Amino acid sequence: MSVERLVQIVRHLRSPEGCPWDKKQTHESLKPMLIEETAELLDAIDNTDIHNIKEELGDILMHIVFHSILAEEQGLFTFEDVAAEVSDKMERRHPHIFGKNPKLDNPEEVIKLWQEIKAEEKSKSKTKQNNSILGRIPKNMPGLIRAEMIQKKAQEVGFDWKDKEGVLNKIQEEFHEFRVALQIGKSNGIEEEIGDILFSIVNLCRFLKLKPAEELLQKSSDKFTKRFQAMEKLIDKENKNFENYSLEELETLWQEVKKI
Q1: 23, 48, 162, 208 - which has most CB atoms within 10 Å?
Q2: Within a domain: residue 138?
Q3: Under a CB-based contact definition with an 8 Å cutoff, are residues 199 and 147 in contact?
Q4: How far, rounded to the nearest angstrom, does the alpha carbon of residue 190 sit from its chain's CA centroid?
Q5: What is the 3-state secondary structure (H, E, C) of 212-237?
Q6: What is the SS3 assignment for 9?
Q7: In terms of DSSP H, where are the helices of the chain?
Q8: pLDDT tens string 102-118
Q9: Closest Cα to residue 133, out of 120, 145, 146, 119?
Q10: Residues 35 and 82 placed together within one structural domain of the fold
Q11: Domain assignment of residue 136, yes or no
């Protein structure tokens, strides 16, 4: 079986006769690579690149196996335990399919039942943090996505703005506090207020039922990248480098590529 083959490969790489690099890795050292592989999978999905989707899924599966082997070496759990736990969870959270519950007719009913089962599971959790409404939101999520998840959880229990004016006023308030911090000149205060502004902007996107702020920022980054690359082509066409242009001349080029 291919999965068992992968498990055996990683075990061998971690063995005394294995690879020096693989033997040095820890849960912590693998984190940046797992983030990178996840980002590459998302890019492949966005580009509808089926070949790369398959390849990147394999890379992520390798990370799952690798982390499982690290835990296995410490006598904590195995890859089989990981697969068994998620299988149990999927069956437990789909009682309308695998249990005796009545069939559900639409996705909304499924989501409602899923949330009810999750809430019941959390109530039985031994970890105090996990019993918090916000306790299970991963801190390592991208900041904009985590902010939106936090806000949605608060909204579920009725802690939300009454209308968009309240959100807009909050953004203005945060900008005012940022200006005050800027005048004082303390970097930690400036950073805190910029974070509050970003959090409020995410809240506005959520409240207006727009696309997630993370997606909107990605689109703006894509737009900037496209225009910057077009400017690079214009500069290359003149056989020049950025250093050959003043800031004013670069701004003129920028306005030119914006029309394309």
Answers
A1: 23
A2: no
A3: yes
A4: 25
A5: CHHHHHHHHHHHHHHHHHHHHHHHHH
A6: helix
A7: 2-14, 20-24, 27-46, 50-73, 79-92, 95-98, 107-123, 143-156, 164-184, 187-207, 213-237, 247-258
A8: 788 888 888 888 888 87
A9: 119
A10: yes
A11: no
Identify which of 144, 107, 120, 108 has the alpha carbon closest to the alpha carbon of residue 221.
144
Same domain membership, residue 123 and residue 28: yes
* 200 vs 206: CA distance, rounded Å: 10
**What residues have CB less than 8 Å from 216, skipping those under 6 apart?**
205, 210
Q: Write the DSSP string, 41-77.
A: HHHHHHTT-HHHHHHHHHHHHHHHHHHHHHHHHTTS-
Pick out the chain residues at pLDDT < 70. 125-131
**Same domain for 33 and 106:** yes
Q: Tokens standing for 51?
A: 């070949």
63, 33 contact by CB (below 8 A): yes
Coil vs helix vs strand at 85:
helix
Structure tokens, 187: 């970097």
Q: Can you give the residue range of the structural domain that contains 157?
A: 143-210
Query: What pLDDT does residue 120 have?
Result: 80
**pTM for the full predicted model:** 0.69
